[in-house]
Design a protein that fits this description.
Growth Hormone, Chain: A, mainly alpha, single chain, 461 residues
Length: 461
């Protein structure tokens, strides 16, 4: 590997960008399916009460608050010929696929809840190992700001393409297996097994084509864990990104996890599950494509704010709209999906925050920084549906039953109004985010100068 400065600035090939996008496609084959169907699998197949499901998800996220930073510290201290992060993708991908399948198996009797908790927590731990390592690659593949933005865009294209595929195919596959309107446990199991198997070669494609070339300024120095942790929690831009992602992902994944209840019980149109779950993802892809030039022209903060405001207000409008108005529901769900173009933008702020910290403190913590954002993703993916289920349970929801008017009101509240407000709350930390294109350019120039000085010093020794 070249050690001159050009190694850090070199542009990424289209193949490399495409390969990186395949990583989130692979990740979301299992994770999006789980986010969309695990709650209803637990309540309507396993037979767990909404409060029990919420408790399982809360316990898992408490453990993640410990596990994710711990693994991030381990990963960024790993030193192999293949890099710091790539080996974890190679060795742990098959175990992640197996854990996803086991999460959609059942254990009868009183042990059902315990088994559900164990398999879900194990899946979350393995997801951290693979997905945090994958996410961290974007900070060590290049320092070119255009390529970093491209990596984020390709990643989100992979996310949304997999969401479209899963939203369209999953109800069809499960319906064909179950042979009836309600999905059986076997239909969930076979469907997740198909997705898990396909995810493995895709992750290996990422491993083969995404190389680590960026070395920390302090490479070779042993940084105490306490110092790394302090650097992360005192990194103002990173903590603001973490806060805005908590609110936004809470809203995004929370709604995705319970919208199926709204379609089945409130709209009473189970035959249109595929349409209403796929349409927002299709519109998100269109939104990302149509707005990408405006992100450069208007800036990340402004475009993110437009997306959050639009998404929040549309969900609030859906809450007040008659669910029997099919055409209006289609239009509003399409507009909501379009506003989710803002979803990838905060992820492109993470490398900026990492560079800010390295320039200010001389400590680069790619792994622990991505652990914070990985935790935000998983908090949203679990606690969003958990809160919604608690609300639904409080309003009298009963699985596989005709819902009362009060229960349907609770489903509508939990699916739309609560998460619409969450999008608007994400504007608060976004407002205080301090970095822009000019500041980022100065930080990168400073880091390049420090690396050059370090290389020159090493040659003179």
């Amino acid at each position: 590997m070249s050690t001159n400065n050009s190694a850090y600035i070199g542009r990424l090939s289209k193949k490399t960008l495409f390969a990186y996008g395949c990583g989130d496609f692979a990740s979301n084959l299992t994770n999006t399916f789980m986010g969309s169907y695990l709650s209803i699998f637990y309540t309507d197949v396993v037979g767990l009460a909404p409060a029990v499901v919420s408790a399982i998800m809360v316990i898992a996220r408490i453990w993640d608050a410990i596990n994710d930073p711990m693994f991030g510290a381990i990963a960024e201290r790993t030193n192999t010929k293949k890099g710091r992060f790539r080996p974890y993708i190679f060795y742990f991908t098959p175990f992640l696929a197996l854990a996803a399948v086991l999460t959609f198996t059942t254990l009868g009797g009183r042990g059902g809840a315990v088994y559900a908790a164990i398999t879900y927590i194990v899946y979350g731990m393995l997801f951290t190992v693979v997905n945090l390592s994958y996410g961290s690659l974007s900070t060590v593949m290049t320092t070119n700001p255009d390529d970093i933005s491209q990596l984020t865009s390709w990643r989100m294209m992979g996310t949304n393409l997999s969401s479209v595929l899963l939203s369209a195919l999953s109800p069809v596959i499960m319906g064909a297996i179950s042979g009836k309107d309600t999905f059986t446990g076997q239909s969930y199991f076979i469907t997740i097994a198909i997705y898990a198997i396909f995810s493995i070669p895709l992750f290996y494609f990422v491993y083969a084509n995404c190389k680590e070339v960026v070395k920390p300024v302090n490479e070779g120095q042993r940084i105490p864990l306490s110092m790394s942790l302090k650097a992360v929690v005192t990194n103002k831009p990173l903590m603001l990104v973490f806060a805005m992602m908590i609110f936004a992902m809470f809203a995004f994944f929370g709604r995705m996890g319970v919208v199926i209840y709204y379609i089945i019980y409130v709209m009473q149109r189970p035959q249109y599950i595929s349409l209403f779950m796929a349409l927002p993802s299709v519109m998100t892809i269109i939104g990302i494509f149509l707005t990408k030039n405006y992100i450069v022209r208007w800036g990340k903060k402004k475009m993110t704010a437009i997306g959050y405001i639009g998404g929040g207000l549309i969900l609030i409008l859906i809450y007040f709209t008659d669910p029997s108005n099919f055409v209006l529901m289609v239009v509003l769900h399409a507009l909501y999906g379009f506003c989710c173009f803002s979803f990838p933008i905060p992820m492109s702020m993470i490398p900026e925050a990492i560079n800010y910290q390295e320039d200010k403190l001389g400590i680069r913590t790619d792994g622990m920084a991505y652990a914070a954002t990985s935790l935000a993703t998983k908090v949203g993916n679990a606690l969003g549906p958990a809160l919604a289920l608690l609300i639904m349970g409080a309003f009298g929801y009963v699985g596989n039953a005709q819902q009362t008017a009060e229960a349907m009101s609770g489903i509508n509240l939990a699916t739309n109004l609560v998460f619409g407000i969450c999008y608007l709350l994400a504007l608060i930390p976004l407002f205080f985010y301090p970095l822009d294109a000019e500041k980022n350019a100065k930080i990168q120039a400073s880091l390049d100068a420090k690396r050059d000085a370090r290389l020159a010093e090493a040659k003179n020794k």
